[in-house]
Amino acid sequence: MKIVDIDTWNRKELYNHFIRLKDPYFGVVIPFDVTKAYDYAKGQKISFFAQYLHSCMKAVNEVDNFRYRIIDNKVVDYDVIHASATIMREDKTFGFSFINYDEDLDVFINNLKKEKIRIQNSYDLYPPVNSQDCIHCSALPWFKFSGHKEPVSGIMDSVPKIAFSKAEKSNGKLMMNVSINVNHALVDGYHVGLFEEKFQFNLNT
Questions:
Q1: Per-residue pLDDT tens for 128-178?
Q2: Using an 8 Å Cβ cutoff, are 186 and 68 in contact?
Q3: Could you give the CA distance from residue 71 to residue 80 in angstroms, rounded to a whole number?
Q4: CA dist 192 → 30, 65, 170 (Å)
Q5: With 0-12 CB in 10 A as exposed, 13-18 as middle and 19+ as buried, what is 176?
Q6: Phi, psi dihedrals of residue 127, rounded to the nearest 5°
Q7: Fold of 2-204
Q8: What single string gives the DSSP state of each residue in 117-133?
Q9: Cβ-based burial of 30 (10 A; exposed 0-12, middle 13-18, buried ≥19)
Q10: How does DSSP classify residue 1?
Q11: Structural domain boundaries of the chain?
């Protein structure tokens, strides 16, 4: 983790503007082609969710601004960003996970499995590790959405929030809408565009 020098940051004026807003988050919904990712997951007999979440986390870690967080009025750049996904229990309640990211898909899947077991065997809402070096993400596979709003806590937050909709066939492709909510003090539309390019590339490889 390193500190971003706000005074010499080329986004200093943007940061100072958006940080004063009551709700500095903005959100977009982007369609992604998950055809190859789905086929790969089924061919390898692995979780489709794990497959596309890993592709997402790889993209998150590849975009500097998606690693930035506001801690004690400072902007910090974390070395690695992990996944805090909602995981559903058999009784349809859910718990928040903290899935350690690893570039190796097999290691990441194993980390995800451990969190699933922990959540299935407890009613704890929060994970033992609950830090800001993560993204908050949710899978909503029951329906396709074209808009999405995250709950707002009312306190300063800088963790990106990503939600995945139901994947549906369209013109011979399997498409999935993804909602991306980010703090505008740290992330601009340009950076969301970079994330979109990298996420789609990862889904295709």
A1: 988 999 999 999 999 999 999 988 887 889 999 999 999 999 999 999 999
A2: yes
A3: 16
A4: 10, 9, 24
A5: buried
A6: -80, 160
A7: Chloramphenicol Acetyltransferase (3.30.559)
A8: HHHHT---SS-S---SS
A9: middle
A10: -
A11: 2-204
Measured between alpha carbons, how far is 192 from 104 in angstroms, rounded to an integer? 24
45-92: pLDDT as tens digits: 999 999 999 999 999 999 999 999 999 999 999 999 999 999 999 999
- CA–CA distances in Å: residue 81 to residues 43, 54, 100: 28, 12, 8
149, 196, 142: which is closest to 165 by C-alpha? Answer: 142
User: Please, what is the average pLDDT of the chain?
Assistant: 97
Indicate the pairing of strand 25-33 with strand 173-183: antiparallel
> Rounded to 5 degrees, what angle do the CA atoms 126, 132, 138 make?
60
DSSP 66: G
* Spatial separation of the C-alpha atoms in residues 132 and 7, rounded to whole Å: 23
- pLDDT, residue 153, reads 82
